[in-house]
Amino acid sequence: MTKQKVQELLDFIDASPSPWHAVASIEKRIQAHHFTRLEETDKWQLQANGRYYVIRDDSSIIAFIVGSKPLAETGFKIVGAHTDSPGLRLKPNAPHAKDGVLRLGVEVYGGPILVTFTDRDLSLAGRVSYQSEQGEIFTRLVNFEEPLLRLPNLAIHMNRNVNQDGLKLNKQSELPLILSILSNEQVPRDYFLSLIQQQTGINPDQLMSWEFNIYDTQKGVFWGADQEFYSNSQLDNLASCHAALEALLNQSEAADGTLVCAFFDHEEIGSESSKGADGSFLPDILQRVALVTGSDNENYQRALALSFMISADMAHAYQPNFSSAYETEHKVMVNQGPVIKVNANHRYTSESTSQAMFINWCNQAEIPYQKYSHHSDIPCGSTIGPMISAKLGILTVDVGNPMWAMHSIRESAGTLDHKYMIKVLEQFFSA
User: Fold this and answer.
1) Which of 110, 210, 265, 412 has the most CB within a 10 Å radius?
2) CB of 402 within 8 A of CB of 414?
3) pLDDT band at 166 (very low <50, low <70, confident <90, very high)
4) pLDDT tens readout for residues 406-419
């Protein structure tokens, strides 16, 4: 059972090489469980125990099950996570030639470990916008699937101190990805557009814009002497999305309160966008649910005061090779349970009350838990938790499963922990 759930996670990640594909994968999964899509431009009709979802701009999604009791009596139970991961994105005029080599210019998205992108079998996934012959604008997902690109490392004979000083890549001049060798008569942009045409069937004259994510084509795997670990790209934070979604879909009985999974794009770059966690997406949807189900503004505010959110984002597992990077008394271990993340400066939302509630759910689910505090001499990251909690006034806890090599193109975590996270989120939704 444990390994099966992780294999399902790996399959989910492999089918989701970009935030746009992640939302498409989630949509396919929830449609199989009888969730109905709602459009923000339509007038809504919601039924008690009804299952619904809303997508904003292809890469953020909110799925919810309407509770059987009035919101003012129960509030919302929310799990929040994010669909994006740090990495490389194509620039608008990406294709260019240098000394006969066709390269694609890229821009750094968020805070990836850049050196992990070298010498990997890379490809492109994202979306293109194009104009039909009738003048309408459409969007289509694109995934090249096969290895298409590479960032070859510089040989040690030309970088003799690389093992002493580390590999440092200039973001402008040393990150363009090699695509092909061009003949003299080939035009870089035309060549690239022909590849998109082969993949999509869209005439290059119709293409208007694109957004492409660079991803590693290597599939997810189990590893370790007893296959107790797993590795893939984008564990941060598709593993949290998958665990939350599984917990929501496993709710077989009607809930009193309204259950919500909210998965946002743009967390890795600050969340300040129309579809990010610091935007209006979640407040818009929650308020509409309240209004359509009969709550006025006062009852909506009462519902928020009764609500609770779990901000689920992966956590830093202790790695003994780099012991000095960890806070001595807060070494969280792989395969020893979900991590409650605490920060005095509120980079994480966890405080004593929300921690106690999460611990209680862990105890009820009969799973272990851990607590994490960041090394005081190293700047601490943050999550969607503080911004949503501040915006809505909802009591929140920040948690996540322990993992190694966060923001590498190849991250690792423990097989037991994924099962643990699903179980505690199930307990939260059913409590």
Assistant:
1) 265
2) yes
3) very high
4) 999 999 999 999 99
Query: CB count, 10 Å around CB of 173?
Result: 8
Angle between helices 235-249 and 2-14 (to 10 degrees): 120
Instruction: Tell me the domain boundaries of the chain.
Output: 2-85+233-430, 87-216
Q: Are 389 and 347 in contact (CB under 8 A)?
A: no
| Helix/strand/coil for 348 | coil
Domain spanning 2-85+233-430, CATH architecture? 3-Layer(aba) Sandwich (3.40)
Question: What pLDDT digit, counting tens, does each position of 112-137 carry?
Answer: 999 999 999 999 999 999 999 899 99
pLDDT tens-digit series, residues 1-24: 689 999 999 999 999 999 999 999
The answer to whether the CB of 312 falls within 8 A of the CB of 421 is yes
Confidence of residue 254 (pLDDT cuts 50, 70, 90): confident
Q: Which fold has domain 87-216?
A: Aminopeptidase i, Domain 2 (2.30.250)
Q: Which two structure tokens, joined as six digits, stand for 358?
A: 């999460």
Helix (H, G, I), strand (E, B) or coil at 397: strand
2 HSE (CA, 13 A, CB side): 15
Instruction: Read off φ and ψ for residue 61, nearest 5 degrees.
Output: -145, 140
* Residue that has been written with the tokens 């040690």 in this structure: 156
Bridge-based pairing state of the strands 207-216 and 122-131: antiparallel
